[in-house]
Amino acid sequence: MPASAEQLLAPATDFVQSQLKANAMDASHDWDHVLRVRNMAKKLAAEEGLDASTIAVIDLAATLHDVQDYKYSGSATATAISVKAFLTEQEAPDDLIERVLSIISSVGFKDELGRQAGHDLSPEQACVQDADRLDAIGAIGIARCFTFGGHFRRKLYDPQIPPRLNLTKEQYMATKDQATTINHFPEKLLKLKGMMKTASGRRIAEGRHACMEQFLEQFYAEYDCRA
């Protein structure tokens, strides 16, 4: 009998945990990150007034959103292929598979760079996207940023390398071209507050954005020996 979103959550959890362990991903994209995104997506969905069945789909999609992430797998299609194969094996209904894949395809910053202006998201897409972006900013976002930069052996900062403020999708996906960790703030992280889709996401993003601004002010002051 085809499985529901609620029934799929436990096997999806096991699947994702095994995938992350096998891929030896760094702590910026580990199970704790997935769990935070799951919990935040459900929190946003509840505050946005979505019903229980929609929240169950959001929970499932958030659980699966980072499987075979292109930043580690090197493939922009690996996530969709892997998630579809898993859900098909679990006998998920076709409409549920399409909903989950649609949500996951809308999460990434790179995907929004490649979209036409004015692209609208469904409420379930918006909740998972905002949840993932909220985990990229604030105190946890700062920690994840430097963890990720360390994994890819990036310099902390080089004042001679200016940030690329108008990134294309192709430039963003060229991971090796992202030269310093600090540049990731103006290139992406400081933009996320203005890209939130839900009212609750925008509210939470305000405080997390301010945290990053304070951190950067202190970082530059210390770098220049002004503090």
Automatic annotation (TrEMBL):
<dbReference type="InterPro" id="IPR003607">
    <property type="entry name" value="HD/PDEase_dom"/>
</dbReference>
<dbReference type="InterPro" id="IPR006674">
    <property type="entry name" value="HD_domain"/>
</dbReference>
<dbReference type="Pfam" id="PF01966">
    <property type="entry name" value="HD"/>
</dbReference>
<feature type="domain" description="HD/PDEase">
    <location>
        <begin position="26"/>
        <end position="146"/>
    </location>
</feature>
<protein>
    <recommendedName>
        <fullName>HD/PDEase domain-containing protein</fullName>
    </recommendedName>
</protein>
